[in-house]
Design goal:
elongated, about 25% helix, alpha+beta, 19 strands
């Protein structure tokens, strides 16, 4: 299509849009505008239309909106051609642009919709937002974050030393069992003064000058001292003896099972089971802290629970090791998690049959803000399906048994206060006051001195909840009348 024809079609199209009229199929045919040509004009960009309008002498052409899209003859409602003077001139081809503009301005009023954007949020919206904020502040959803829970007790081995130096400067207990390599310091006084260092040899014997060999291996330190003193008293008249431990022997033990570095270790003769765990790097998180075993010559000697160490400070079962002892850490047993309003949220290893009260005790107890009327236990049943159980943290609820993998969630109480009265406005001491039965307005505002200067004395407002539906209720009062009473 040539540029001349496009300009002609564009003039006709623009004038019809400006008139706000709806072109009929007959009109399009009279103007020799086919559907394809009309579509072509519509597809021009705004800048192209403006440039084309400038070339043909049409000014002040602005796009208008219509609820009826003009995309082709199928969307055009029929109307008689030539119903306006401008259409008649277009039909006969005698179009005067200046005259058409004047006629359009005098006879056509184009309504342009105006969208007003509010610069501020309305008062209703502000009130709604405030109400929602108050709702959120006074509510506590029944949710507890369990993503940061860690296994309890394993931090004990976080700083385990890479080497283990034997202790040589600590007192030797009376129950210490002597063995090859131990050294005894014997000092004689009385009729004869002398000092000897006696080393227990591989046969478990010490060679005492002027007395002879004495077997001490396998005896505890207390009995060995008594035996030496008795032998010296028999052989040396008028001589007394003082016996002390010298250098201690080293022993070889084994740390096996779920320890960080299982193997054989040489430790001090005073080493205990807990020290053997330290030198082996500690217990892995796959190992049990509650059933650590000490085996000697293939037999189970004792079992210790490290929770007694951590929670009670009880080291009475931390027995001393002998050469060849095996410290064995079995895999971890049943576990249960506790999260929320407790002192020490964590994952705890269960022992025997553990109930809710015992798990709370392991966690250090409930916080003051704990909501005891409802807690949840989440876990997996025997049918491998997840379940949720609601309990109260009192009476029978505390006796609820726990299973492997259970999560006990302890929720917090609401931050909502039951008896506040809020005093705001032009007063000297605004804030919250405690409400009591029979309280009057004069209890808050006893004298005019409670007000700031320039207070409007004829008007005050009390806002409260209506009984029954909790809707806001407004009650007006006069400060002037209040202080006249």
């Amino acid at each position: 299509m040539c540029l001349k024809n496009i300009k002609r079609f564009f003039i006709s199209y623009v004038f019809l849009l400006c008139l706000g009229s709806i072109v009929s199929i007959n009109t399009a045919q009279a103007l020799q505008l086919s559907a394809a040509q009309l579509q072509m004009v519509q597809q021009l960009s705004p800048s192209e239309k403006a440039k084309l309008a400038q070339q043909v002498g049409v000014s002040n052409v602005a796009p208008t909106r219509s609820n009826t899209p003009v995309t082709g003859p199928e969307n055009i409602k029929p109307r008689a051609l030539g119903s306006s003077p401008v259409e008649a001139k277009i039909k006969h081809g005698t179009v005067d642009v200046a005259q058409q503009n004047a006629e359009i301005q005098s006879s056509v009023k184009v309504d342009v919709p105006v969208v007003k954007v509010a610069s501020q949020v309305s008062a209703d919206q502000l009130e709604l937002r405030k109400s929602f904020a108050d709702f959120v502040a006074e509510s506590k959803p029944l949710t507890v974050d369990t993503s940061h829970l860690q296994q309890f007790g394993y931090a004990l081995f976080a700083g385990s030393p890479s080497t283990f130096a034997p202790a040589t400067d600590i007192p030797v207990p009376a129950e210490y069992v002597l063995g090859p390599g131990d050294e005894l310091n014997v000092q004689l006084f009385g009729a004869k003064s002398d000092q000897f260092k006696l080393l227990i040899d591989r046969e478990g014997v010490v060679a005492f000058p002027n007395i002879g060999p004495i077997t001490l291996a396998g005896m505890n330190f207390s009995n060995a001292k008594a035996l030496l003193a008795q032998a010296i008293g028999k052989k040396m008249v008028g001589v007394s003896a003082s016996v002390n431990m010298g250098k201690l022997r080293s022993i070889r033990i084994f740390a096996l099972g779920e320890v960080s570095q299982p193997g054989s270790y040489v430790v001090s003769g005073l080493a205990t089971l807990s020290q053997a765990l330290m030198v082996s790097g500690g217990v892995k998180k796959t190992g049990s802290l509650r059933t650590i075993q000490l085996k000697r010559r293939g037999k189970l000697i004792t079992t210790i629970d490290l929770y007694d160490f951590l929670l009670k400070g009880d080291t009475s079962k931390d027995v001393r090791l002998l050469p060849g002892d095996v410290v064995f850490v079995p895999p971890i047993g049943m576990t249960a998690s506790i999260a929320g309003a407790v002192l020490r949220p964590a994952i705890y290893e269960l022992k025997d049959h553990t109930n809710v009260a015992q798990l709370i005790h392991l966690a250090g107890g409930l916080l003051p803000k704990a909501y005891i009327n409802k807690a949840t236990i989440e876990g997996m049943g025997a049918n491998k399906k997840n379940y949720v159980k609601n309990i109260a943290l009192k009476k029978h609820g505390l006796k609820t048994s726990l299973h492997n993998g259970d999560i006990l969630k302890v929720f917090s109480t609401l931050d909502f206060e039951e008896n506040p009265v809020l005093l705001i406005g032009n007063v000297k001491r605004p804030g919250k006051y405690a409400w009591s039965q029979g309280m009057h307005l004069s209890n808050l505002l006893a004298t005019p001195e409670a007000l700031l200067p320039e207070t409007y004395m004829d008007y005050g407002i009390i806002e409260r909840e209506t009984k029954g539906n909790r809707e806001p209720e407004i009650k007006r009062f006069s400060l002037k009348e209040l202080f006249q009473k």
